[in-house]
Design goal:
The complex is a heterodimer of chains A (304) and B (238).
Chain A: H1 2-32, H2 39-56, H3 59-62, H4 65-92, H5 101-121, E1 129-130, E2 139-142, E3 145-148, H6 149-171, H7 173-183, H8 185-190, H9 195-221, E4 223-224, H10 228-243, H11 248-268, H12 276-290
Antiparallel strand pairs in A: 1-4, 2-3
Helix pairs in contact in A: 1-6, 1-9, 1-10, 1-11, 2-4, 2-5, 2-9, 2-10, 4-9, 6-7, 6-9, 7-9, 10-11, 10-12, 11-12
Chain B: E1 5-14, E2 17-27, E3 32-36, H1 43-50, E4 58-63, E5 66-67, H2 73-79, E6 81-84, H3 96-103, H4 112-122, H5 124-128, H6 139-151, E7 157-161, H7 169-184, E8 188-193, H8 196-202, E9 205-210, E10 213-218, H9 220-225, H10 227-237
Parallel strand pairs in B: 3-8, 3-9, 6-7, 7-8
Antiparallel strand pairs in B: 1-2, 1-4, 4-5, 9-10
Classes of the chains: A mainly alpha (304), B alpha/beta (238).
The structure holds adenosine-5'-triphosphate and magnesium ion.
């Protein structure tokens, strides 16, 4: 019983991490119907960006977590945003009116490019790199369950940022423009909405969240590697599909479901954690058989 | 003084299909001008090109004397041309109020709230149900909202594409009365209609478009009296 509770708690933390990344997949898909496979790599470069920021700090600041950690967030997020904006501008925008397969293949290309760029240019990137110890130490203990304070911070950031994002999209003028562009891009233009501005902003939001995820991943798991974007990206993408691509709430709930399946199935199913992908895809397929649009997605409709 | 809108020798194609061939017309400030013509004549294509959603293959579009046919759609709205598209194209999953706010998207002044109230005064049913999703409304109510939304940018030129489509005769009359009222409040209107009788009766000037070309034009009442127009468009519409 206490093992189950512990695995549920771990699942919530993993879900929180996946949610931060899944939001980027779902927002971009909602606006331009592109599955941005390179989004997992934005998360990965943010993690390296945070590490690089720490490395560049003078030694006395490295010893002060209250200074170093915020600066790492800034560094990681800046790297993520710059990469995402360049990617949108030069890889996807020229293909805006091309058949859907073209940007999809481009996304895969961008993904490989970013991985290789980090592998070649980041010092010692071929091996796992330890992440700086600037995160909250110790555990939160609730009866039989232990969660590191870093994990607690990750859950808080993930839920907090998702709520802020949802509120912004529902209440602000720019959020309305984003929803209008997602529902009917031509008519949104007739309202005076500049589609490029909306699309860039969508990529920026996704990158900020992926940036936060990149730093927290290092803090929670203590080391990073160039495959992290691909591995976590698949879980995040699956979460977005499970929740219904385009839906903010769906991405978050889908992410927590996947986090829970991952840890609980890893504990109790034959094969252990090596087979977590299998159980996640089994659940995904079952959901899609009965609800092709995902848990919270709008049914696919033909545009007028 | 140059006319408010001038379309000169406009041609528009969808790939190999030429939808508009050499259309010319002008809209003077303060007028109601209608474009009439049968299905597929190219009316919608013409409006979508004026508002910047399509690019002309040839010809020019001048607004207040300035060429606009290379401007993106969101810039053209900002210059004062508002377009209520064919089929209404509301944002169905947004509320009435949000649809109207989007109509006022580019405005920075503080009169938006008052103008929204003006739309509610004009169409009380919208005011009563301002927090309901637009997709739940009837055809006539949706049309009111589409017109209201297009008014929210305070356009100099309001383009309406088939505002009476799918409406009952009573609802159609309401909509046409509203168009007349908007004119009296100072808005210039470019109207596209298949309901030629009602449109011409209301118009200062009309143009007949056939197979992508302007074939006839004149003041609304004289087109109404023209035997060719009566044979081609009025016999079937009533
Ligand atoms: N997206 C498109 N792709 C290809 N051809 C199109 C497209 N839209 C319209 N057309 C063609 O262009 C021509 C003009 O169409 P348009 O919609 O402008 O006519 P219309 O006068 O508005 O007709 P209606 O009264 O039926 O609304 C038609 O032959 C139509 O089939
Ligand atoms: Mg039409």
């Amino acid at each position: 019983m206490s093992v189950l509770l512990q695995q549920l708690a771990n699942g919530v933390v993993q879900g929180a991490l996946i949610a931060l990344i899944a939001l980027g997949y779902t927002m971009v898909y909602g606006i331009i119907q592109l599955i941005n496979f390179a989004h997992g790599e934005v998360f990965m470069v943010a993690s390296y960006g945070g590490l690089a920021t720490f490395t560049l700090l003078p030694e006395d600041l490295q010893k002060s977590p209250a200074v170093a950690l915020p600066l790492m967030f800034v560094g990681g997020i800046v790297v993520a945003v710059v990469v995402a904006v360049i990617m949108e501008r030069f890889a996807y925008r020229p293909l805006r009116n091309a058949p859907r397969l073209a940007p999809l293949i481009t996304a895969l290309g961008v993904s490989v490019f970013l991985q290789e760029a980090v592998r070649v240019f980041y010092p010692n990137a071929k091996s796992n790199l330890p992440y700086p110890k600037v995160f909250p130490e110790g555990n939160l203990t609730l009866g039989p369950v232990n969660v590191s304070w870093t994990g607690v911070l990750l859950v808080g950031l993930s839920i907090g940022l998702a709520v802020i994002l949802q509120t912004y999209i529902n209440k602000s003028r720019m959020g309305r423009a984003m929803r209008a562009t997602a529902q009917d891009p031509d008519t949104a233009k007739l309202m005076g909405v500049n589609p490029n501005r909306v699309i860039v902003l969508t990529f920026v939001f996704g990158a900020v969240l992926a940036g936060v995820a990149g730093i927290m991943y290092g803090g929670y798991l203590n080391n990073i590697n160039i495959d992290m974007g691909f591995q976590t990206g698949i879980f995040a993408f699956t979460a977005a599909v499970l929740g219904g691509v385009g839906s903010i709430r769906g991405a978050v709930i889908g992410a927590f479901i996947i986090g829970l399946i991952k840890t609980v199935a890893g504990q109790y199913m034959p094969g252990g954690t090596q087979y977590d992908y299998v159980w996640i895809f089994v659940v995904l397929i079952l959901v899609l058989v009965f609800r092709p649009q995902g848990l919270f997605g709008e049914p696919e409709r033909v545009r007028a | 003084m140059s006319p408010l809108l001038e379309v000169r020798n406009l041609s528009v194609a969808y790939g190999a299909i030429e939808a508009v061939r050499d259309i010319s017309f002008t809209v003077e400030a303060g007028q109601i001008v209608s474009l009439i013509g049968s299905n597929g004549a190219g009316k919608t294509t013409t409006l979508r090109t004026i508002s910047g959603l399509l690019r002309p293959a040839a010809g020019e579009i001048l607004f207040q004397g300035k060429p606009i046919h290379n401007q993106p759609a969101h810039t053209i709205l900002g210059m004062g041309i508002s377009h209520s598209p064919e089929g209404r194209r509301l944002f169905p999953r947004m509320t009435v109020e949000e649809n109207l706010q989007l109509g006022a998207y580019v405005r920075k002044d503080d009169g938006v709230q008052a103008d929204m109230q003006r739309v509610y005064d004009l169409f009380p049913v919208l005011g009563e149900r301002r927090h309901n999703k637009a997709g739940l409304f009837s055809g006539g109510e949706q049309q009111m909202l589409a017109i209201g939304r297009a008014m929210m940018s305070k356009p100099r030129l309001l383009m309406l594409d088939e505002p009476s489509m799918g409406l009952s005769p009573i609802m159609t009359q309401r909509i046409f009365d509203t168009i007349k009222e908007l004119q009296s409040l100072g808005t210039t209107i470019l109207l596209v209609e298949q309901n030629a009788l009602a449109a011409l009766a209301l118009s200062d000037h009309g143009y007949v478009i056939d197979l992508g070309k302007t074939t006839l034009d004149g003041p609304g009442h004289s087109l109404l009296a023209d035997q060719r127009v009566r044979d081609a468009y009025l016999g079937e519409s009533h």
